[in-house]
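User: Quick sanity check before I run a bigger batch. Here is a single chain. Can you write out its predicted 3D structure?
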Amino acid sequence: MAHAVPALAERLKDVEVAASVIMTTKARALTAAGHTVISLAVGEPDFDTPAHAIEAAHKAALAGDTHYPPQDGAPALKQAVQRKFKRDNGLDYALDEIMVANGGKQIIMNAFLATIDQGDEVVIPSPYWISYADQAKLAGGKPVFVPCPQNNGFKLRAEDLEAAITPRTKWLVLNSPNNPSGAALSADELRQIGAVLERHPQVWVLSDDMYEHMVYGDFTFSTLAQVCPQLKDRVLTVNGTSKTYAMTGWRVGFCGGPKPLVKAMVNMQGQLTSGICTVAQAAAAAALDGPQELVKERAAMYLERRELVVAELNKARGVVCHRPEGAFYVYPNIAGCLGKTSAGGKTIRTDLDFVLTLLEEQHVAAVHGGAYGMSPYFRVSYATGTEQLREACRRIQAFCAALA
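Assistant: Done. Predicted structure follows.
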């Protein structure tokens, strides 16, 4: 006789494992089987954490900074964050308007849990980072997607935002530069969005600036609270050390925002995790306050990689690759590859078929556009070595050339 098992929560029914995680797992399995796999699926810098940040963590541990931290972040790190916002963004936040969490992802979850009631709407421009929608659902909210097509540079238009806002809208999520498209909003484009938001005072705005230092050419990064100071009392500016300083494993995110919201988020974090790792906070403070030349040097390397990847992917038959302003992703259109059959006999009906068959036949891992809310595309991360990128592009070209 079968034994009954307790049920899982209904809230999980629409929440899936991230497609980037699934592709990375498949790539690791192929590697373990002896294949030479090139993974372009993970949004993780291939650089090392700066040595002075590692040394700061070591010193903190030796000095006994290994006890429970404050829930909102260690004073030294919050002060470093305060200086960072002033230096990089021209934003003045009081220390009680700043908090620290386990990566930017926890900042966002804290914010949603502290504000969203059942059925509240979260406006998310698409393509979008996978977690925004799932986190909104977990908090009881309803994602409302606003398509931002390639012919508009994958950017949110003010009129499309206006059409998406309803009396139930609680949040607008802005991610610039964007994961997965790399699109970045200029100061003028942000002002147009700000003009819409002024007409809807019930809407909070989450400005995810995680890729702010990865902008290229003559593009200048701006953030909403900076260019629309009249909105600052309902904008949550989110950032972290993961991308800028290659500190993904240290798990340090931070934000600046209105005091009542931050206070509620700190309360929420107290129930979830309490404060974050003390030695990671010491490392993050050192990274934020330390020499910044490395940030510019790495951005220059990403620029070279972007140029390589865009040029090489545009040589692949059936692929059209847009040149983005920032981040370390490109989001090529593969409409010209659909309906064809691969060298191994697989029919490519969707962008998911494309990436799965590409991995199976050419051992290149990428993520399908459907995971980010827009098809037929796939996301390529160029946060990996130049020679690996060159070889990956060669394999993609070979894969596309063989489609018939």
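The mean pLDDT is 96.

User: Great, the batch can go ahead then.
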